[in-house]
Amino acid sequence: MARKNDLEAARFWLQPLAVLQGLVVALGFLFLFSTGLAVVVYFSSWQATPSLLTLLAHLAVFAGAFWSGKKCLRKAWIHGIAVGCLAFLLFGFLGSGGHAFSSWLWWQRLLRMVLVTMLGGMVGGLLKDG
């Protein structure tokens, strides 16, 4: 009789559908956060700070990594990292105009995003049903 781990070892360990779902969740949360923030800024004299925008982006991508960790079968932390790297590359490419890889600050931010999303994937993997 084969054990569950032996059956899973025969398959590819990264599930692209779980990563894609996590990326869509991250983009959805980012859209909700930015829309809510735009409404608040429009109707008040308050201005958002760059640190708040960074926090909201990290929370959105953490949620996407959490979702990906819940949906994958194993190695949830790698799925979280994949969501974080894809989201960071997408956000970085859209925001920098193609000069993303040239600064040390960009690499530091990528490392921070990887750590946040690895944690999100691990928490999602630990809290999944069954």
Summarize the helices and strands and which ones pair or pack:
Elements: H1 4-9, H2 16-43, H3 50-71, H4 76-96, H5 104-126
Helix pairs in contact: 2-3, 2-4, 3-4, 3-5, 4-5
3D structure, described in words:
- This protein is mainly α and 130 residues long.
- Helix content is 77%, strand content 0%.
- The chain has helices spanning 4-9, 16-43, 50-71, 76-96, 104-126.
- The longest helix has 28 residues, at 16-43.
- The protein is globular.
- The model has no long low-confidence stretch (mean pLDDT 85).
Mean pLDDT: 85
| Largest pleated sheet | none
Helix content: over 70%
Unreliable spans: none
Count of DSSP-assigned helices = 5
Shape: globular
Strand content: under 5%
Radius of gyration: 17 Å
Estimated structural class: mainly alpha
Distance between the termini: 21 Å
> What's the helix-strand series?
HHHHH
Oligomer: single chain
Total strands: 0
